[in-house]
Amino acid sequence: MKTAEPGIEKIEGKRGTVYRVQIRKKGHKHQSRTFTNFRQAKKWKYDTFNALSAGDITDTATMRRTLLSHIIQRYIENILDPSSSNYKTRLGQLKWWEHELGHCIITNITEDVISESLDNLKKTPDRFGRSRKNATINRYATTLSCVLEKAFKEWRLIQRNPVRNLKKKSEPKQKKKVLTFSKCQTLLSVCKEHPSKYALALVSILLCTGFRKGEVLSLRRKHVSLEKEYIYLETSKNSDSRTVPLVDPALRHLKNYLLSFKGDENDFIFPGRNKEKPIDFRATWRAILKKADIHDFTTHCTRYTTISLLSELKVPVNIIAQIVGHRTIDMTMHYTVPSLDFMRQELQNLGSEIT
User: Which residue of 2, 44, 57, 158 has the smallest Cβ count within 10 Å?
Assistant: First the structure.
């Protein structure tokens, strides 16, 4: 039975009265939805018409039958890069979300549902029996946000990304630790005495280029030109490629290391026991730091060190950004941590001028 409102049909059945809305707009796919309330049916009709006219995403039948597990699988198959350094970590996080909320329809994935899942994750110990930190919880939320953002902006399967409305959990602000020139020399001296053949070459590359740990470990023989003295990175964290000059002591130590290299052009320079994967450097790094008497210093701190020391040498910040692969000057400034000795000397120069 037709109603006074065009496009809304009244249907009376054994289970009661329902109102079926059918929207036919030129240039758009036909949409239909049933309501038990005429006012709700009318509101949905006009909301959908307005959204179609404005080019916004509308609530469709496809949305209402698509599960979160479907878009997670689509993201894994088409978006997630198996060659990225954090592939296994992100894949594990996506699998957790699939197990946790994969059965839910994507239109039902709201802020409260996600927040409750993150709270449950926080209470659940990891595989080592340790409690998960806030930083870990934030990474899980970010991974889900990437999936939902893709479903919102490109796949047009949801009308918004609910993770954007969640407040991140507070993380302790760690002090950015950098080494002085003398400490860098000490670190390389310890590496020279270490039994691992690769340690000296690897650490010297970290200090002399500002590469991320993953960028160094993913280097293959074809990426290094000893004749032209440069390293070419095909991909990095921000998906950009770049060429960085190779200088002493990194050039000298890498040359000595590659004298015993037996792989071909496509092999990792620092291979693990399985040549298909790079070496696990963590145990060696801890031993080197212990012997060098350096505490609370990660491999990523070498990146802070390189950028800060280049800054102390008065290298222009735009050149530093190109060396380390930053897209913005602000990010380079974030990594710049001048030492106390450097700041003291600069202030003494100021004091001398004032005097």
Answer: 2
Task: Measure the CA–CA gap between 284 and 196, rounded to whole angstroms.
Answer: 8
* 9, 1 contact by CB (below 8 A): yes
Backbone angles phi, psi at 239, to 5 degrees: 70, 10
Judge whether 265 and 222 are in contact, CB under 8 Å.
yes
Residue type, 177: K
DSSP 33: E
Sign of the torsion formed by the C-alpha atoms of 273, 295, 194 and 257: positive
Let me know if 60 is exposed, middle or buried by CB neighbors in 10 A (0-12, 13-18, 19+): middle
pTM for this prediction: 0.69
Pinpoint the alpha helices (H) of the chain. 38-54, 61-65, 68-78, 87-101, 111-123, 134-153, 181-193, 199-209, 213-217, 250-258, 282-292, 301-312, 317-324, 329-335, 340-354
pLDDT at 58 (0 to 100):
65
Contacts of 30 (CB under 8 A, 6+ apart): 22, 23, 24
Task: Give whole-number Cα distances, 13 to 1, 5, 8, in Å.
Answer: 12, 20, 16
Q: What is the mean pLDDT of the chain?
A: 88
How far apart are the two ends of the chain, measured CA to CA in Å? 95
- Diameter of the chain measured on Cα atoms: 97
Q: Which residue positions in the chain have pLDDT lower than 50?
A: none
Residue tagged 């698509």 (tokens): 66
Cα(157)–Cα(184) distance, integer angstroms: 52
d(CA 171, CA 307): 24
Measured distance CA(5)–CA(97) in Å, rounded: 43
* Span 307-328, pLDDT tens digits: 999 999 999 999 999 999 898 9
Taken in order 310, 316, 317, 321, the sign of the CA dihedral is negative
Alpha carbons 249 and 44: distance in angstroms, whole number: 68
Joined together, the tokens standing for residue 178 give 């950098």
Q: How many helices (H) and strands (E) does the chain have?
A: 15, 6
Task: Report the candidate in 67, 170, 86 with the shortest Cα–Cα distance to residue 122.
Answer: 170
